[in-house]
Amino acid sequence: MRPDDLALLRTPGVPTVSPDGRMAVVAVGRPDLGDDAERSRLWAVPTDGSAPPRPLTSGWCDTDPVFSPDGRWLAYRGAEPGGPPQLHLLPTAGGAPRRLPGHPLGAGRPVWSPDARRLAYTARVPEVDRSGADRAGQPPWLVTTLRWHADGVGVVTDRHSHVFVLDLPLGTEDDGAPLPRPRQVTDGAADDADVTWSPDGAELAFVSARHARADRDLVRDVYAVPAAGGALRRVTDGRADCSLPAYDPSGGWIWLTARLDLGPDGLDVAGRGATLCRVPVAGGAPQPVLDPASTDRGDRTSATVLAGGAAHLGVQRRGAVELLRVPLDGGPPEALVDGPFTVHGLAAAGGVVVATVGHDRSAGELVAVTPGRRRLLTAFGRGLATTGALRRSEERTAPAPDGAEVHGRVTLPDGPGPHPVLLSLHDGPHRQDGWSLSVDTQTLVSAGYAVVRCDPRGSAGHGQAHARAVRGAGGTVDADDVLAFLDAVLADPALDPERVGVMGLGYGGWLATVLTGRTTLFAAAVVEGALTDPAGLLGSSDVGWWFVDQYLGADPPARAADLTTPTLVVHGEDDRRFPADQGVRLYAELKRRGVPAELLLFPGEGSDLGRTGRPGHRQARLEHLLRWWARWLPVTPDEDLPGEDGHPAAAPGDDDGREPLTVRATRLD
């Protein structure tokens, strides 16, 4: 894979399914290198595989489709170039989409009422008009809270997110029929999210932090409010981080995802997995349905999906995200998709579950699951897959110094090697590096590098004990795990133990500085969007007031003074998670002490520029990574480098790069 192959990347989002189960609709995003923008449109996909997918919309960036309960309408978000997303309504029987009344900062994902006559959603409500180009002429922000800004959003202290309801009159079929203005049903100095309807349509549930210590802890509760507006009531008991509520059909329970029991200070989140719970509608403590010690939700579905008497969700497991069906009556969970795959999003209706499923060579395809059968419905990734440039990863395990198992993967380029090695450390630490497409890995492998990734202590998908082992101790047992895993895989004759580099993103960047301070093994390093100066994080990061204490401890060591490894520092200028001054300080200290260093700073980008940044920046970033590694860790000239004179041929058995899922799966060509 080469940097300009980003143009071939197709990434499907979370699907929706028609009430009769016959049709799925999904947004598919693509980087447009020509316009330097992310484009997306909706595709209609028959769930029985009777026809290939067809494009449904042609907007600039159409996302988040949702079928109405009667199947007559499709609501979705659509954005014009440079504008925020607004709600649109498309008749499923045919016709042009209609834009619904807008919001200056955009509207969130729409949620249909049971009678299909109303939409609920959240939207940020600006207290001050800051839309002008003259930022210097805007009034100041008065900040009085710890939680006053957020990565990817900016300052939020005067633009909180609240719940709205939009009534759709019977004349909706007439494009000229006026629509009423949306009704705001919540307010106050708090952000509201994850709105959902009660079965009778009389009540809305949502998630918010409105308790007395809301500015000093990470607790979020489920609240309920009459759909017509009125007094709020708190449903959960104020001890958990709640999300994604959904009423069950009986109306007696609310199902949700929660990180339970955050301790007396409400900050004990390190390594706690998010698990499926339920709470009585009348109120109480969230009751775990799955074991919090071994389950951690990992899909990106923006709802708890209840259908056919069961809840459906993705659970992280040893690098995979499995699709589970959990009966509401207490029966045993059933895995609908397992193995080396990642379930990114899902929907269910009419006896069909549709999921977006990816793996290490696929950004995702739609899979329909019916009793006893899985059917692969799409081939959105064919353009990239048929280049033959994507390589399989191999699972490896190794013992840590204390005997614990460290699980990870190695991705090898063509040829016998020995190949130069790049150790790639994931962000988090409570994430996993598993069975999903990594553009970085595929690009570096195509350039001739073996890429090593692993899930040290602190990572998700290996149980809560594994994840909580780094609570207040980052850079200790996790660093031991990484070095043990690397030492074990370097025994492979296909890897060259004399040519090794390290790269890390976010917390992984912090871990890279820990490792380069402990060993001279690495020829060079890339530290991206990273925490490098814990003391400076307190007032500048959106998580700085709690993250360092929870993950690194009260007195983490300073790292820059220990470093002599040549280092490329990469940062987004607008990063509010680990702000750019973290990278700038590391760069300046290295340069001041004569260590070879470069600073690659991307204007206007946040913490996730490699995945969600402007396509031109993402391409430039990959090119700079290749340039840096070619300088400090060159691939020897006598190695057979895939991609030097075009793309390599597909490996035998790769089916031209297309890998169908197993278990009676079929692919539409």
Summary keywords:
disordered C terminus; 12% helix; Rossmann fold; eight-stranded mixed β-sheet; 669 residues; mainly beta; five-stranded antiparallel β-sheet
Give a quick precis of the structure.
The protein has nine helices and 39 strands. The protein has 669 residues and is mostly beta strands.
Describe this structure in words.
There is one protein chain. This protein has 669 residues and is mainly beta. The chain has a domain at 394-632: Rossmann fold (3-Layer(aba) Sandwich). It is built from nine helices and 39 strands. The strands form nine sheets. An eight-stranded mixed sheet has the order 32-33-35-34-36-37-38-39, with helices on both faces. Strands 1, 2, 3, 4 and 5 form a five-stranded antiparallel sheet that branches. A four-stranded antiparallel sheet has the order 6-7-8-9, with no helix packed on it. The radius of gyration is 25 Å and the shape is globular. Mean pLDDT is 91; it is low at 638-669.
Topology summary:
Blueprint: E1 11-12, E2 16-17, E3 23-32, E4 37-46, E5 54-55, E6 61-67, E7 73-79, E8 86-91, E9 98-99, E10 111-112, E11 118-126, E12 149-150, E13 154-155, E14 159-167, E15 183-184, E16 193-197, E17 203-208, E18 221-226, E19 233-234, E20 241-247, E21 253-259, E22 275-280, E23 287-288, E24 305-307, E25 310-317, E26 320-327, E27 334-337, E28 342-349, E29 352-359, E30 362-370, E31 373-376, H1 382-385, E32 393-399, E33 405-411, E34 419-425, H2 439-446, E35 450-455, H3 464-468, H4 477-489, E36 495-505, H5 507-518, E37 525-528, H6 547-551, E38 567-572, H7 580-592, E39 597-602, H8 609-612, H9 615-632
Parallel strand pairs: 34-35, 34-36, 36-37, 37-38, 38-39
Antiparallel strand pairs: 1-3, 2-3, 3-4, 4-5, 6-7, 7-8, 8-9, 10-11, 11-14, 12-13, 14-15, 16-17, 17-18, 18-19, 20-21, 21-22, 22-23, 24-25, 25-26, 26-27, 28-29, 29-30, 30-31, 32-33, 33-35
